[in-house]
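FAQ: What does the model actually see?

It sees only this:
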Amino acid sequence: MTQAATLTLMLQPVAGRHVFVPPEPALQLQRAVQPESGVLERRRADGNRESDRPLYHPPVPAAVPQPARVAVGVAIAATVGTTLYQSYTPPLYKSTFELAPVAERSQTSGTATATTDIRPEVDQATLIQVLRSHQVLLPAVRDLRAYNINLSPAALAQNLEIVPLADGRLEVRYRHRSERVAQMVSRQLAQTYVDYGDRCRLDACYALEQATADLTEATGQVARLEQAIAQFQARPDAQNLTHRADTLTRRTAEFTRYLTQTEQELKLAQQRYQVIQTQLAFADANRILQQQGNYQALLQALHQTEGQIATTLTQAQPDAQTLQALYQRHQLLSGQMTQQVAIALNQFLLTQFPDLAADSETLPPALSQIEQAFGLAHQVNLLSARQRAIAPIHQAMQADKLRLAELLQYQSKLETQLAVQRRILQESQQQHARLQREISERRIVWRVAGA
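And it is asked to produce this:
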């Protein structure tokens, strides 16, 4: 059943039309009894109840011809049968109501709604068959049990009559010996049929159920993702992710270049120191420097200062005063270490060349190589201390960079999922609205037109 109109359930109270129907005449033939005596005996049956049973029928006058006697007997039997039926058959009550297909076409203008009755082309025969089916009557049977009316669908259908009328209307009639049952069944059937018509059975309605479920799911997904993003953005480690990631990436690249340069210089200094040490078999400049107590302490202090400078540079906004103080300390330590190298070199020369103290103008032939060896050993120590200070900080920066990248990836994943779910939500809303429009143009419901 289809009709181009928006249909809405319209249920009007059913007063019920309950009509007393006189019993129809019924022929109940009595079994012939042979005459035994000329009187009627009254006999008490079952001890308490009494029943009248004719014990003697007067003989039919012989003057009456045989065919006439038969006709009279039939007439008497019919009369007696009708009287007995009317005496012992309870009254029969009939309750009726009409169903009319209606549609409500919504014309949105503020809160106004226009209702238009329609007269659709319906297959009344098929519809009557459906309305009399057990599947449709079963809800009425269940609901009637609340009123202590226990009927089976078959018993309900037995006394149910649905008559097609003009304009697609149907008249529903129900008969019962009990006025109360007839009234309650009629009311419940009216409600059941209206509810049945209110349940949309179009393909679009089933699609609308799925679209409604999709819309609910998409709405929930959007809400959950929005909440997840809000909770994520409230985390301390998720603040200013993009800016922090850009800054860390840039500074990590700078540290990488600085560390790479330091390692290359250290490797070159170590190679040169090995070469010159091969030429000066009598002197190990690095071992001599390590034996200098002040030199070793200064080297450790310089190593710590290098680490402090590197740590300060990793901050998002390095403190300028802190950096300036660290640089000044680094310069002071470097100068003190240079002095310690000169002292170690002089002590070594005086030890290896005793005559040098008396005649300072007589320099040993390997003096330049010795000075170069001490200088390379000192350079190796400085670069090694710098490399050891920078390497762990660089590793920490790489770890922070990876962690920030993971946070950015997670945030991007949430935002991507939210964008997808919002698009799904929009499509679900459009699909839901389209199906509602389609249903509103095709759906028909029933209302009780008369009772």
